[in-house]
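Cross-posted from the bioinformatics board.
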Amino acid sequence: DGGITQSPKYLFRKEGQNVTLSCEQNLNHDAMYWYRQDPGQGLRLIYYSQIVNDFQKGDIAEGYSVSREKKESFPLTVTSAQKNPTAFYLCATDDPGREANYGYTFGSGTRLTVV
Amino acid sequence: GQQLNQSPQSMFIQEGEDVSMNCTSSSIFNTWLWYKQDPGEGPVLLIALYKAGELTSNGRLTAQFGITRKDSFLNISASIPSDVGIYFCAGMKTSYDKVIFGPGTSLSVIP
């Protein structure tokens, strides 16, 4: 059963701590994305990776870091430099170049709260 | 950068009513997508449109790819409580381009 797994579903962090959100996929998709969603807001792109060992900054990359050492995994680290990290984080994957465009497949999200 | 506009921003409707929402862009897209996000979950693809003028249905949902390629519309007939959520439109130029998302329309259904 192919899909995307984001863990944990809920995460609490103390101010000044780094925290890493997990995103794993078994869809064999090349591209992976991280989005941030604030209450009542749309999706804002943090980082994306179109191939292993390569990634690009999105619109709001400051205070975040990523790695793409394996095709299946694209973890996101929220660093202490991110001033307002409380948000809902979504991971998505894509299979660029396939015959029909179906857009992105999303995980179920991780809700991060700074306490 | 490219932007999509969605209207209305939010809707409160009675159960059983029909719903219409739209999405506009200053750029041409070759694929239009409609997603629904349930509270606390990730967005799920509802309908994909590939040709200008195309009308596609998925149960009570019907979406249209605008003739100008710069807009798309989503209609929901006979709304039910489980239709509650945020509806996002999205556009793509080619399958190699990033998906551009609209800001979403929040739908609330009053039983």
